[in-house]
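Contributing new records

If you add data, match the layout below exactly. Sequence lines come first and carry their own label; structure lines follow with theirs. Keep one chain per record. Anything else will be rejected by the validation script.
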Amino acid sequence: MKTKFVLLTHIPLFLIFMISASTLSAQKQSNIWYFGDGAGLDFNDSCKPRVLTNGAMNGFEGCATIADKSTGELLFYTNSEAVWNKNHQMMPNSSLIPGGSTITQVLIIERPGSNSQYSVITSEIMTYSGQHYRFHLIDMNLNGGLGGFVYKDSMLYNLQVSEKITAV
């Protein structure tokens, strides 16, 4: 009988947990993907992804896209050769790595402590031209909210590198 009482006292705690968990939502910065020849996917509808065909880039290998973490609205995307804004127009001064198509050579990371700045990290084709790992800072408050470069081509790591990048 005592066991039943213990289980019954935990039911309210369990219900509180279930109700609060149902109101939580994940960050949405990965809800939109652009890749390939103008292709994309929109995961903002949790039931099924929507196919996008309005992308401006050709990204045959490494590509990266970032969306607003609250709304899931597209901010910008890149294939590491250039950066396109949410209107699918190239950002001013956006040339990064000419002919830079490699396996996973580009990442977009929100700058810690900022809601508007993002680092784009690139690596050139394995040890080609000696460019190694570089980072570029984009501020979404520039160009009327379409984003622009604060700076580009800052050296992150100057030894020979592979084409692969990952972040946690």
